[in-house]
Amino acid sequence: MLLPYGILEMCGRQFWIEPTRYYDISQFTNRLLPSISKTILFNKVLLLNENNKGSQIKIGHPFLDGLFFQAKLVDNGLGSKVQIFKMKSKKKFRRRFGYRTKYARLHFDSILSIKSFKNFYLLTE
């Protein structure tokens, strides 16, 4: 049995989004985001499956008009550390550095189909 889901475009990537789930999205911290526990609306919906049996699927060309995914920004954080080591043999060249990727944790609440909203932060990339 399939749950209601949608395919959403964020940060140049496509995500399979199901309501009431958490997603860690990288590359969000470079953009301006609202503070934690604010509601964000995403309008780049590529596909939407409304019922459990998969018989009502809407496909956008390229996006569906009037549909929004509602998410709440839960946390901003750092991912696990990535170590990079460069070495050239016989040249005595060794270089070691690392970095931690930044991410934003989003909790997707629901799929909305209303065009006018108040007190929401609309994210249009």
UniProtKB/TrEMBL annotation:
<dbReference type="Pfam" id="PF00829">
    <property type="entry name" value="Ribosomal_L21p"/>
</dbReference>
<protein>
    <recommendedName>
        <fullName>Large ribosomal subunit protein bL21m</fullName>
    </recommendedName>
</protein>
<keyword id="KW-0689">Ribosomal protein</keyword>
<dbReference type="InterPro" id="IPR001787">
    <property type="entry name" value="Ribosomal_bL21"/>
</dbReference>
<keyword id="KW-0687">Ribonucleoprotein</keyword>
<dbReference type="GO" id="GO:0006412">
    <property type="term" value="P:translation"/>
</dbReference>
<comment type="similarity">
    <text>Belongs to the bacterial ribosomal protein bL21 family.</text>
</comment>
<dbReference type="GO" id="GO:0003735">
    <property type="term" value="F:structural constituent of ribosome"/>
</dbReference>
<dbReference type="GO" id="GO:0005762">
    <property type="term" value="C:mitochondrial large ribosomal subunit"/>
</dbReference>
<dbReference type="GO" id="GO:0003723">
    <property type="term" value="F:RNA binding"/>
</dbReference>
<dbReference type="InterPro" id="IPR036164">
    <property type="entry name" value="bL21-like_sf"/>
</dbReference>
<keyword id="KW-0934">Plastid</keyword>
<dbReference type="InterPro" id="IPR028909">
    <property type="entry name" value="bL21-like"/>
</dbReference>
